[in-house]
Design goal:
Blueprint: E1 5-9, H1 16-29, E2 32-34, E3 38-39, H2 43-46, E4 51-52, H3 55-63, E5 67-73, E6 76-81, H4 83-89, E7 93-97, H5 103-109, E8 114-119, H6 122-132, H7 137-150, E9 158-161, H8 166-183
Parallel strand pairs: 1-7, 1-8, 2-7, 3-4, 8-9
Antiparallel strand pairs: 3-6, 5-6
């Protein structure tokens, strides 16, 4: 029986990377792999276990068919390695750090995916973005406006509120993954 794709999304600053780092061991212990993204920026600046590549390398990887999913957002390119298809075929669940704007395309490829949206109260999100010191105040305002346009639970997404304790969000994520596994 094939595994389930769990497609985690959320605005920049919502804590996706922190959540994945905290939950990774428990997810793996429960038969769920966390896919490592390829991104066209330095992996050190990402805060996640990603492979940073140049735009030229990324374009070559796209041409070679290296990605199961790939998209562009905020001036960067993101890719999920094709290896996830092997994991899914072998019965493992796979969690990917996806993009809200790319969800409809991902659903075309993986119609049974579980879409999970990480949400955070706007004031907390603003503070997190300011603390990262990656963007100007104007860029942060643009991100917050973009985030508000998505709403909280659109497109049949299950939400996890990560405004409070990260441990609570981790528990909710693990529960969702285990529920998805029981239903397949």
């Amino acid at each position: 029986m094939p595994g389930k794709l769990i497609y985690l999304m959320g605005p920049s600053g919502s804590g996706k990377d922190s959540l994945l780092q905290l939950a990774s061991g428990d997810l793996q212990a429960n038969g769920c792999r966390v896919a490592r993204r390829v991104i066209t920026r330095s992996a050190e600046s990402v805060g996640e276990d990603a492979l940073g590549v140049t735009a030229e390398t990324f374009a070559r990887m796209v041409e070679e068919g290296a990605f199961a999913l790939h998209w562009q957002a905020n001036g960067l390119s993101y890719g999920i390695p094709k290896q996830i298809d092997d994991w899914l075929a072998s019965g493992l669940d796979v969690l990917v750090n996806g993009s809200r704007e790319y969800l409809s395309v991902a659903r075309q490829r993986y119609p049974d995916l579980l879409a999970v949206l990480l949400v955070v109260q706007p004031a907390v999100l603003r503070q997190r973005l300011l603390a990262r010191k990656r963007e100007t105040a104007a860029q942060i305002d643009a991100r917050l406006a973009r985030n508000a346009s998505f709403g909280e639970a659109d497109d049949g997404c299950v939400t996890i509120d990560n405004t409070g304790r990260l441990e609570d969000a981790k528990t909710r994520l693990i529960d969702l993954v285990m529920d998805a596994r029981r239903r397949t």
